[in-house]
Amino acid sequence: MAAQASEPILIKFAHVVGDDTPKGKGALLFQKLVRERLAGAVEVEVYPNSTLVGDADEMQALLENKVQMLAPSLSKFTEYSPKLEVFDLPFLFDDEAAVSRFQKRETSRELLRSMAGRGIYGLAYWNNGLKQLSANQPLRDPTDAAGLAFRIQPSSVLEAQFAAVDAKAVRLPFADVSKAMQAGTVQGTEGPWSNIRGQNAGIKQSYVTETNHGVLNYMWVTNSEFWTSIPFAVRSELDNIVLEVTQTVNAEAASMNQREREQILANGSTTLVTLTPEQRQAWRAKMQPVWRSFEAQIGSDVLRAAMTVNRR
Ligand code: LMR
């Protein structure tokens, strides 16, 4: 596309994790492709690691058009679209492939656009991966979690998930997790492998129980009004880039998590706890009743649609 005479449209893309994560790489790939294909028309600035805005203020900043793009985890939209809590339900999806299938279904497409009227326009789902439990002691049986405090993202489902194993849940922004773990205000957390290193930074000895009990994926969002104000030809090219970046992020997230898992375990300060099928089933049995508690809020139709994606 030919360079424009006027100032380029500026897109500030802010997020809370590092550059070397599925989301961080996605943001940088978006910047690169825009630079290659829309030079002079659009410019992208990427702000990782909560350097511009963080969990507490990023959504407000998007609504005020102070930033134009975010990719918060699906747990961070509860206030705007409670149905998205379906993604937080523990042990709902068998694997990341099932989540990907669900993200392609009509129900998920509708959820993507469910906040457009409130100023938040969903561009795409981005994968990160399945969550593991991490703590300063080994967790094998659900009773091992009793009495511990776990950091959670701002989601009532996640609160209920930890209450189900008699643990306490503490809502904290991602940027504060490592400090809270070091200070001992929380003794555990949950996250995909690609986030565990950041969360556990500075901890002498941590244990990761490979539960794969839930999912941490993202919605790539922009400000509705900003997006529709972009001239059609430019927006069409941006739409193409969005599609291409999303395909790359979603194709590479699983292998990034696998690599990160190997590196974390190789560095020696993290001990892997592998559950027997019976132990995993015990966690599942404790946590699964959470589904029913949130069925009314999420919607039976949405829950049913999500439950069908495992059957293949
Ligand atoms: C978290 O807060 O644990 C995650 O949402 C961080 C992220 O963006 O991956």
What order do the SSEs take from the amino end to the carboxyl end, as H and E? Answer: EHEHEHHEEHEHEHEHHEHHH
Compounds present?
A: (2S)-2-hydroxybutanedioic acid
> Overall pLDDT, averaged?
95
Structural class based on helices, strands and sheet pairing: alpha/beta
Which band does the percent of strand residues land in? 15-25%
Number of helical segments?
12
Give the fraction of residues assigned to helices: 40-55%
Q: What would the principal axes of the Cα set say about the shape?
A: globular
Description:
This protein is an alpha/beta fold. It is 41% helix and 21% strand. It contains twelve helices and nine strands. The protein has helices at 22-37, 58-63, 96-104, 106-112, 156-163, 177-183, 193-199, 224-229, 232-266, 277-287, 290-298, 300-307; strands spanning 9-14, 42-47, 69-70, 120-135, 149-152, 168-171, 188-191, 206-223, 270-273. Strands 3, 4, 7, 8 and 9 form a five-stranded mixed β-sheet that branches. A two-stranded parallel sheet has the order 1-2. Strands 5-6 form a two-stranded parallel sheet. Helix 11 crosses helix 12 (300-307). The longest helix has 35 residues, at 232-266. The radius of gyration is 19 Å and the shape is globular. The chain starts with 8 loop residues before the first strand and ends in a 5-residue tail after the last helix. The mean pLDDT is 95. It binds (2S)-2-hydroxybutanedioic acid (LMR). Residues 16-17, 23, 73, 128, 153, 174, 191, 195 line the site of (2S)-2-hydroxybutanedioic acid (LMR).
